[in-house]
Write a structure and sequence with these properties.
This protein is mainly α. Helices cover about 75% and strands about 0% of the residues.
């Protein structure tokens, strides 16, 4: 049972490393504004996240069984209370590695989020500039010339020929 927990943690570590690679690829794609590649990366990343959720559920199930077996009230209590010193150190190392990878992934995702927001602001600014130029007149026009001649309230078809 402890081996299953170790295997699950190892798989989680590998998936986190892959997610970090995807985050780095997304950063490059965002900077270079390659939207099609970004869409592919996001789809692949979603598949990886689903796989991560399955393995995390398995890890949680095994951990709960082990906590009941060893009488621990938390995961860290379980690891600290293990009689096998080698397994204890292995699990502690895996947990620390996983925590470090999570921090790294969060940092990369925050950078990507900022890049994405900046790109969206740039696009909005460009849209505003394009729509504003259609409304502006770049030539001087007399303010008097802007006045429309007064028309009578009669419609075109109401007048006599």
């Amino acid at each position: 049972m402890l081996n299953r927990l170790g295997v699950a943690l190892e798989e989680l570590i590998e998936i986190q490393k892959q997610l970090i690679d995807y985050a780095e690829q997304k950063r490059v794609v965002l900077i270079e504004r390659r939207v099609d590649e970004l869409n592919v990366l996001v789809k692949d990343e979603a598949k990886l996240v689903k796989q991560l959720n399955v393995i995390e559920a398995e890890r949680e199930h095994v951990a709960i069984q082990l906590m009941e077996q060893y009488g621990a009230d938390s995961f860290s209590g379980l690891v600290d209370g293990l009689p096998d010193e080698l397994m204890k150190r292995k699990l502690q190392t895996q947990v620390k590695t996983l925590q470090g990878l999570l921090v790294e992934l969060q940092a990369k995702n925050q950078i990507n989020e900022r890049l994405l927001l900046d790109s969206m602001h740039f696009v909005q600014h460009m849209i505003d500039q394009v729509t504003k130029t259609k409304q502006q007149h770049f030539n001087y026009q007399s303010p008097i010339g802007n006045q429309k001649p007064q028309t009578s309230s009669q419609g075109f078809f109401d007048t006599k020929a």
